[in-house]
Design goal:
It is a single chain. With about 140 residues, this protein is an all-alpha fold. It has 2 domains: about 15-55; about 60-135. About 85% of the residues lie in helices and about 0% in strands. It contains 6 helices and no strands. The longest helix has about 30 residues, at about 15-45.
Length: about 140
């Protein structure tokens, strides 16, 4: 191995300042999101123990499409439309989450954008419930 090849390998092994910044940003977002999730999960478990147990059961996962369908049929059209949108997105997006690390970079980005869209739909559902509660 020549001296030029060694220098080239060393420079490839070093991360640029931009790469380090991007990695730090990624880990910061990841840890912040995971922390928020853990806190919310803990509060839900503490305040709604029975619902928490049910929420992560296989039985609920099997019943979710039926529950959303019933809510969609029984509710007003605006709720029905929102629940249908949530169900369709969940059915297409959630199976891919478990395979996140196996996805290509482009597919990870696409999944992330789809998850953000799903999160916005859940926020819209929360707004709807708050509006109905006030009426």
């Amino acid at each position: 191995m020549t001296g030029d090849e060694t220098k080239e390998e060393e420079s490839e092994a070093k991360l640029s300042k931009e790469a380090i910044k991007d990695l730090a940003e990624m880990f910061g977002h990841l840890l912040g999101a995971y922390a928020s999730f853990a806190i919310t999960l803990g509060k839900t478990q503490k305040n709604y123990e029975e619902a928490y147990k049910t929420m992560f059961s296989l039985e609920l996962a099997e019943k979710l499409p039926e529950m959303l369908s019933q809510l969609s049929e029984a509710g007003p059209p605006e709720l029905s439309k929102l629940l249908t949108r949530l169900f369709v997105k969940m059915a297409t997006i959630l199976p891919r989450i478990g395979k996140l690390m196996d996805l290509s970079a482009g597919d990870k980005i696409k999944l992330g954008k789809n998850l953000k869209s799903l999160a916005e739909d859940f926020n819209e559902l929360l707004v709807w419930f708050e509006k109905v509660k006030e009426e």
